[in-house]
Amino acid sequence: MLIRQIELFLIEQPLKVPFKTSYGTYEKRESIIVKILDANGICGYGEVVAFSEPWYTEETIQTALHTLQDFFIPILFKKQFNHPSDVATRFNQFKGNQMAKSGLEGAVWDLYSKLNSISLAQALGGNKAEIPVGVVISIDEPIKMLKQISAYITEGYERFKIKVSKENDYEIVSTIRNSYPTIPLMIDANSDYSIEDIPKLKKLDEFNLLMIEQPFGDRQFIEHAILQKEISTPVCLDESICSLEDIQIAYELNACKIITVKPGRVGGLTKSIEIHDYCVEKNIPIWVGGMIETGISRIQNVALASLPGFTIPGDISASSRHWEHDLIFPEVALINGKVKVPVGPGLGVEVDEERIRSISKKIYKYTSLVEITK
Ligand SMILES: O=C(O)CCC(=O)c1ccccc1C(=O)O
Ligand SMILES: [Mg+2]
């Protein structure tokens, strides 16, 4: 693969309904769509899932624009690559900035799969034709969250994740469990708790939750290990896991029983496969997370979730969960409660570039002037 041109589209879209977490409320979403073109004009698409503010990890849209332009795009132009994993290896020379790396590497995976006339799922090693999926219910009045769950059950979702904060956890979970005693239910705290809240978290054990996601801060592996010893509900780590090394720490410390994998958070699809393989070997259940992303990242996540180790339904809700219009056709949709893994080359969907251009606040275009002899 010889990359000749790269475009970054800085877009912003309103969310269909505000998304509230323990951190705050999102009403609109900035994202960066990546388009790469090879020497023959074949293209690949990726998405940088960083947020506008550094609340989830330290990256932001603006740091991603900087690291892409000044470090990662020049790497891509410098050399011919045989495989997307070579790109991931090259990116190792620079630390962190996983979401920027992932956006670009994802586009290379799309291009690579297209050039080989295989689907992205096939290229990654996936073996499922369709995947069961879950959905996230953002913080609201318990009665409204109940209504949401009932609508999502009707849509066919198989796992329900409730965003909680330490102020409202017990009230919300008990209300939902009263009406739905047996649905696969879990909560995500986005680091809202601290070690002093262990008694509060212990009280949630009675609700038979699938897991409690990221109760403590992202570097609090030791605290999570203390918690996991005290509660029977599995702890799942999200923000804590930015690399395979982070999982090794969590595993050795018994800091969690489950891990959610997001390509953006771990530096791309190559890293996601390495993590998948490690977790399969160690018998750590994994699932694919979500980032309120557009269909480009979402359908990439569908391909990833088709790998055999992803045994828990992920946060791969339909396009209609967050968007009035998505950027891909067909949109991500539930058919009989499942999402089909695309079989066409690459992402296996049409990308609506006209729409991307029309909602772009800025478009950055880079052209390779480097002569490559081999
Ligand atoms: O993409 C979705 O539908 C929601 C997934 C989600 O919960 C989430 C969305 C944005 C940032 C962090 C998280 C999270 O899993 O913590
Ligand atoms: Mg989470």
UniProtKB/TrEMBL annotation:
Needed cofactors: a divalent metal cation
Domain Mandelate racemase/muconate lactonizing enzyme C-terminal span(s) in chain numbering: 142-234
Coiled-coil regions listed in the entry: none
Residues binding Mg(2+), per UniProt: D188, E213, D238
EC number assigned by the record: 4.2.1.113
UniProt superkingdom: Bacteria
Residue positions of the active site: K163 (proton donor), K262 (proton acceptor)
Family membership: Belongs to the mandelate racemase/muconate lactonizing enzyme family. MenC type 2 subfamily.
Protein name: o-succinylbenzoate synthase
Organism: Gottfriedia luciferensis
